[in-house]
Amino acid sequence: xxxxxxxxxxxxxxxxxxxxxxxxxxxxxxxxxxxxxxxxxxxxxxxxxxxxxxxxxxxxxxxxxxxxxxxxxxxxxxxxxxxxxxxxxxxxxxxxxxxxxxxxxxxxxxxxxxxxxxxxxxxxxxxxxxxxxxxxxxxxxxxxxxxxxxxxxxxxxxxxxxxxxxxxxxxxxxxxxxxxxxxxxxxxxxxxxxxxxxxxxxxxxxxxxxxxxxxxxxxxxxxxxxxxxxxxxxxxxxxxxxxxxxxxxxxxxxxxxxxxxxxxxxxxxxxxxxxxxxxxxxxxxxxxxxxxxxxxxxxxxxxxxxxxxxxxxxxxxxxxxxxxxx
Length: 326
Description:
326 residues; 12 helices; transmembrane helix; MCP_transmembrane; SLC25A3/Pic2/Mir1-like; membrane; Mitochondrial carrier
């Protein structure tokens, strides 16, 4: 959400617009590159920290998706299987590309969301944007995620290869270089379709549910009367609900992304034909393999992201812009 707390609604959209515009024009508040670079940095840190910390969960989740016959004992059982067969270090496989990839993705995602939301308000006008804020949230998050995925895709492809083939390479740089040398640049984007199919609905659900849950909370209590700690708690709770919604929406594409990045395609086999084949093999039930691990992972990291994001914005003084929540 935007950095500044929205003033209480007056009941008049036109009057709310005047108040918001006046608040945004306050010379003590940041604007332009100064503001959006802070949004981007806060987003980069919150995504890198949370995704990096949950690398072990992601490793087990990916193993369940790729080999559900072997890894059929749930999240805790999966941890035990990986550690017993490969050692404790195995659960941190892919930490490098995860932290680096989501640092870039977080900058584009959160910074882009704030940017596109403001552009939508400028284009539509405050009243129209406020009355259609759900559509604004959805469009802004989708646009931001598209650009974020361009940055994320090569590192996500490297991560999945490292997790699915423990002997493939020793880490981010060696794995990235090996794929580039042996398979070319195109291999990094073989999963671009699935990653868009996964991440765009995921991010749309994530932001719109977060915005809506937060709005409901702040209709009950005045945000300005809450302590900083309580505001962080609201961000955590809203983020947790948003994470569950996002995980359920994007799970089938997440499974397909893991499958398509596990191995390279057959000679002459296109990405679309591979996706169709994988979808047929999986079926509905197979596409939700590992959903328990992913609900835990996405709920936790989304809650953490919005809490960290809000706190970093405050620390950086990233206040400004116009908010359309009521």
